């Protein structure tokens, strides 16, 4: 089966430079336009179902895609964004002042650092991989879309690319409404392409 991994469209928190994590934030108008551009880019895929994080910004993106493909949406808590603990709700500038070393290591993509009272890379990786294992069993021969978040996707891609401790998470950064293609085979997940965003070039 094929899984199309999607980062949600631009949210109000993204626009304001806020560390969102588990906090809620609606899509901006630009985020809506990005979602429509993504739906057009995926038009040739035979999408059978969409799985999404319950966060509003992810659900809104998933709804645009579901309208395009006339397929059902399933909410899955395991697809939520990485929880950033005490950093959540702070701007990036505020967080750099309050937690300089943590922010330096997070910005560098260090997979061994977690935010104070936040979720670890291992925790996020486990729940994201569990979703993929579930999909492989229930959607053999089909194509599904998985809508999730920036940091969660970075961690999943890092894991799929080998999870080397010295490999920086930041190299797997995804722009809003970019997508990646993943084949789930009997031998395990095979990442074919990642970070596809050419459909967003004309979105202002």
TrEMBL record:
The keyword Isomerase applies. Keywords: Glycolysis, Isomerase. Substrate binds at residues 7-14, 57. The active site is at residues 8, 81. The keyword Nucleotide-binding does not apply. GO terms for cellular component: cytoplasm. Its EC number is 5.4.2.1. GO terms for molecular function: isomerase activity; phosphatase activity. SMART domains: PGAM. InterPro entries: His_Pase_superF_clade-1 (IPR013078), His_PPase_superfam (IPR029033), PG/BPGM_mutase_AS (IPR001345), PGM_Phosphatase (IPR050275). It holds the Pfam family His_Phos_1. SUPFAM superfamilies: Phosphoglycerate mutase-like. PANTHER family: BROAD-SPECIFICITY PHOSPHATASE YOR283W-RELATED (PTHR48100), HISTIDINE PHOSPHATASE FAMILY PROTEIN-RELATED (PTHR48100:SF1). This is 2,3-bisphosphoglycerate-dependent phosphoglycerate mutase.
């Amino acid at each position: 089966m094929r899984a199309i991994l999607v980062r949600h469209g631009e949210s109000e928190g993204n626009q304001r430079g806020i560390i969102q994590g588990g906090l809620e934030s609606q899509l901006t108008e630009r985020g809506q336009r990005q979602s429509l551009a993504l739906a057009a880019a995926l038009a040739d895929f035979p999408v059978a179902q969409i799985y999404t994080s319950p966060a509003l910004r992810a659900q809104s993106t998933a709804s645009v895609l579901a309208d395009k493909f006339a397929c059902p949406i399933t909410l899955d808590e395991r697809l939520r964004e990485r929880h950033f603990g005490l950093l959540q709700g702070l701007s990036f500038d505020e967080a750099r002042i309050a937690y300089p070393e943590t922010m330096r290591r997070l910005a560098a993509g260090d997979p061994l650092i977690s935010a104070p009272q936040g979720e670890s890379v291992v925790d996020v990786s486990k729940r994201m991989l569990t979703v993929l294992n579930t999909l492989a069993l229930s959607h053999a021969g089909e194509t599904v879309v998985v809508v999730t978040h920036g940091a969660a996707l970075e961690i999943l891609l890092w894991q799929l690319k080998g999870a080397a401790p010295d490999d920086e998470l930041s190299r797997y950064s995804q722009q809003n409404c970019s997508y990646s293609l993943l084949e789930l085979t009997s031998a395990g997940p095979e990442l074919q392409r990642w970070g596809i965003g050419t459909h967003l070039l004309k979105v202002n």
